[in-house]
Amino acid sequence: MLKVLLLILSIGAIADAELCKPDAQNAFKVRLSIKTALGDNAYAWDANEEYLFKAMVAFTMRKYSRRSTTQISNVLLCNVTDRVSFWFVVTDSSKNMTTVPGSEVEAAIRLNRKRINNAFLLSEKTLQFLKITTTLSPPVEPSTPVWLIVFGVVLCVTVAGIVFLIVAGIHQRKKKNKDSSERENLEEKGEVTVTIENGIPCEALDLKAGRVNGVFTADDERFTSL
Question: What is the pTM of this model?
Fold first, then answer.
């Protein structure tokens, strides 16, 4: 009985080895950079971590493809290295010695990638599924539409330009009126200039008032009477 049991186990191990090997059909390679991600807080990769990985993959397959019969035993790991890299496949529980199509496994991993990363305290850069492309986060849309922002900027620039032109026009008009008023005041203001000739103060002729210097007028009258 014991020999039969050992034979069955050996056959199962051989079958698993054929299903899970590098570059096998529907197999995926995983690489973890635990030391890089966590530094001094890095944990050792052991059988418990392998069990957690299998559990996360089984959970992912159950949730994505509704394979409610997927068990941890359906996730096979092989070629585990000390630098923490390995290959894995997911076997189909409903069919003996058959793996789940790689496209289905890839879609399930992509859907639950974040939860798998969080389980190991890693990111997509430190927990890599080499055949599975990185899951891109959806672009963040601004709360305010871009067109509304552009419209607001253009409107502000236009209003600022109009205000500047109005203020500049008012300032120029005031300056022009001030210069014109000063010229008119100078023309209308009558200023009398007093000059000194031979020690005698004489009033210059005021053209606007039409006045004549009185000193010269007196001399003219005196010579006229003679």
Answer: 0.55
